[in-house]
């Protein structure tokens, strides 16, 4: 059964700022690439198998980095990490951060990931206080969202699969929710699409977990050039114009 941490992080009501990101759907809609439930399903499936797989793999790989420091009560109630522990943790997070950057060629998508990570960090610190979060922030003050999710799941004692499932689900649930606002689609039909994506999502989770124990450089790196280009265009071509979503 899923742990509470991954369920809370996947909840649309979690105050992490995910509601301001459409995962590239706003740009796809503006270009006429998504206009119906059927075309939305194709978009979500493609996003799940590319950007979703990358995010899931890095979230899963982040879990064991922080798993040695379980969350229980406030941070001052646990023995602090030694300097050696902190150095190892920060080094591993730094490797994952660099490899995830390399797999995100669009500056706009990198910014969206870090913006969501930063937005989630404050709520995470209140719910799961841990020195591991300090180690992650020491690598970059605006951590990539998948790394933060993985770190929290590790602190909460959840397995890598739950972190992978959380971010894989968010990779499609966010754009699906945006589709209702952007296109006025039937929310019941949109939720049915998410359910139909279940087998594909579980396949992505299994691949992410299988790869998570490999060196950072060997983690999945499927490309999504159209998503990269649309993410950049969404920022560059709509600068100063009214947009519903930041990405």
UniProtKB/TrEMBL annotation:
GO molecular function, one term: nickel cation binding
Record keywords, A-Z: Chaperone, Nickel insertion
Coiled coil ranges: none
Keyword Transferase in annotation: no
Domain of life: Bacteria
Name the UniProt record assigns to this protein: Urease accessory protein UreF
Naturally occurring in which organism (per UniProt): Pseudonocardia halophobica
Taxonomic lineage from the root: Bacteria, Bacillati, Actinomycetota, Actinomycetes, Pseudonocardiales
